[in-house]
């Protein structure tokens, strides 16, 4: 069964993040997408720096007094995007040596970077430890040994945290990351043994906990429950090592609405639920001095971006309308429904210049596969060759989460709009 993002969701997102002018043309950061498409070509990713800042500031204010907010680089690793968040005070969570380089290029000090991920290579560990990384999150015994060996090679002691795969009661969100067999982290039932293994390594200094129970969470109560669970696990580690923790990383997982029926995460409800968690931290001497951190990516970057594609052809096949564009799953796998979704649902997709005569259509890309579909039942006006469509909620898990090499089409350009000025932050084909 297919589900379609309603025009109401798209209209709401445009009102919250963008605008249309008197002629109906969609603007990002005050600039018409028609002009940006003419200047930079299509397909094209466009990000609004003010939108990135609004999301960061809103979340930072909502969790003030409880947690700091870092940026999960995997959501969008373009250094220009990272730089916007760093200027707002965010550190960076990375998942590879290349993301470490991107964060450094964006100006993030190495001591404000933490490294997570279940398969850190010896080469990447040498890269980040040699670069002075602030913290590495351990996820298995072999990795623990690799980090210790790399620390020995570099003649240093590395600050580490344990990523814990929590019990079933901590699960939540659209994609469970805990509460089941998982490649991520040490199982909760093995916490004590994992602590002992780290403490036995003289080159490792255990400073914290990392918990990531689920992603794309849209309910405040789910997130609050996960965070409370994480604080309990942190207290267990601190009691085990008999010293205060320095870091409690409660992960990201904050979601954004993509589909009909999705509710926007209620930051007021999130804020209202924090006092018991703040009390838990402040009244426990083993936790009170710790830096509690959230490291979302999608929530911060997603709403500020659009993916722009130009119509190549419009056809009717056996009574169904197809709009064929120059953009597709090779640039935006998530919008195609092929990034882990079981039920393929349409991202909010709109005509850049508006129009009349709205009716359902399939929006497909240029690739030679039936999987290359950006929307299966999009409600769009009459379109013709040369018109533009825009996929909303495309600032996160877009270009770098897609099979850009498939059929050898050139990667699209990326543009950042800031203060009414557009700047290329990745050239077409780069």
Annotate the secondary structure layout.
Blueprint: H1 7-17, E1 19-20, E2 26-28, E3 31-32, H2 33-40, E4 44-48, H3 49-62, E5 68-69, E6 71-72, H4 79-87, E7 92-94, H5 97-105, E8 113-115, H6 122-130, E9 135-138, H7 141-154, E10 158-165, E11 175-176, E12 186-187, H8 191-199, E13 204-211, E14 214-215, H9 220-241, E15 247-249, H10 267-272, H11 275-282, E16 291-294, H12 298-301, E17 305-317, E18 320-325, H13 333-336, E19 349-351, E20 359-364, E21 373-380, E22 388-391, E23 413-418, E24 421-426
Parallel strand pairs: 4-23, 5-16, 6-7, 7-8, 8-9, 9-10, 10-12, 10-13, 13-15, 15-16, 18-20
Antiparallel strand pairs: 1-2, 2-3, 4-17, 11-14, 17-18, 17-22, 19-22, 20-21, 23-24
Helix pairs in contact: 6-7
Organism: Methylorubrum suomiense
Pfam families: Orn_Arg_deC_N, Orn_DAP_Arg_deC
Domain Orn/DAP/Arg decarboxylase 2 C-terminal: 45-395
Features:
Lyase, Ornithine Decarboxylase, Chain A, domain 1, 24 strands, 430 residues, disordered N terminus, 30% helix, 13 helices
The structural domain count equals 2
Annotation, overall tally of beta strands: 24
| First and last CA, distance | 37 Å
Question: What is the number of helical segments per DSSP (H or I, 4+ residues)?
Answer: 13
- The secondary structure category is alpha/beta
Largest sheet: 10 strands, parallel
Globally, the shape reads: elongated
The CATH class of the largest domain: Alpha Beta
CATH superfamily name of the largest domain?
Alanine racemase
Proportion in β-strands = 15-25%
Return the average pLDDT rounded to an integer. 94
Low-confidence stretches: 1-6, 172-178
CATH topology grouping of the largest domain: TIM Barrel
Helix coverage percent of residues? 25-40%
Rg calc: 22 Å
Please tell me the CATH architecture of the largest domain by its name.
Alpha-Beta Barrel
């Amino acid at each position: 069964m297919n589900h379609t993002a309603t025009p109401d969701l798209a209209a709401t997102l445009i009102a919250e993040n963008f605008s249309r002018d008197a002629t109906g043309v969609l603007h990002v950061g005050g600039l018409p997408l028609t002009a940006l498409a003419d200047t930079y070509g299509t397909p094209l990713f466009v990000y609004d720096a003010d939108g990135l800042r609004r999301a960061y500031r809103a979340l930072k204010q909502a969790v003030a007094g409880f947690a700091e907010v870092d940026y999960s680089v995997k959501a969008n690793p373009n250094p220009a995007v990272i730089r916007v968040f760093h200027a707002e005070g965010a550190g960076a969570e990375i998942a590879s040596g290349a993301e470490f380089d991107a964060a450094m290029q964006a100006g993030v000090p190495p001591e404000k970077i933490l490294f997570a991920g279940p398969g850190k290579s010896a080469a990447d560990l040498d890269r980040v430890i040699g670069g002075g990384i602030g913290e590495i999150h351990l996820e298995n015994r072999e990795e623990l040994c690799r980090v210790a060996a790399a620390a020995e090679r570099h003649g240093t002691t590395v600050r580490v945290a344990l990523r814990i795969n929590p019990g079933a009661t901590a699960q939540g969100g659209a994609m469970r990351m805990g509460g089941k067999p998982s490649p991520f982290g040490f199982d909760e039932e093995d916490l004590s043994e994992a602590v002992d293994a780290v403490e036995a390594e003289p080159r490792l200094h255990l400073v914290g906990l990392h918990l990531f129970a689920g992603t794309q969470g849209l309910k405040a109560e789910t997130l609050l429950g996960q965070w409370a669970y994480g604080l309990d696990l942190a207290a267990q580690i601190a009691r085990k090592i008999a010293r205060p923790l320095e870091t409690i990383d409660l992960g990201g997982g904050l979601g954004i609405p993509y589909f009909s029926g999705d509710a926007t995460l209620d930051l007021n409800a999130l804020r209202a639920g924090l006092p018991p968690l703040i009390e838990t931290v402040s009244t426990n001497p083993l936790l009170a001095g710790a830096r509690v951190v959230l490291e979302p990516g999608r929530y911060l970057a997603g709403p500020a971006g659009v993916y722009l594609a130009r119509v190549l052809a419009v056809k009717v096949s056996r009574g169904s309308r197809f709009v064929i564009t120059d953009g597709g799953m090779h640039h935006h796998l998530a919008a195609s429904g092929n990034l882990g979704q079981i039920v393929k649902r349409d991202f909010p997709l709109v005509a850049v210049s508006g129009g009349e005569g709205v009716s359902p259509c399939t929006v497909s890309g240029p690739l030679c596969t039936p999987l290359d579909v950006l929307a299966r039942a999009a409600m769009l006006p009459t379109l013709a060759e040369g018109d533009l469509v825009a996929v909303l909620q495309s600032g996160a898990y877009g270009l770098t989460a897609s099979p850009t090499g498939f059929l050898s089409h050139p990667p699209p350009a990326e543009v950042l709009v800031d203060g009414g000025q557009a700047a290329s932050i990745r050239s077409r084909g780069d």
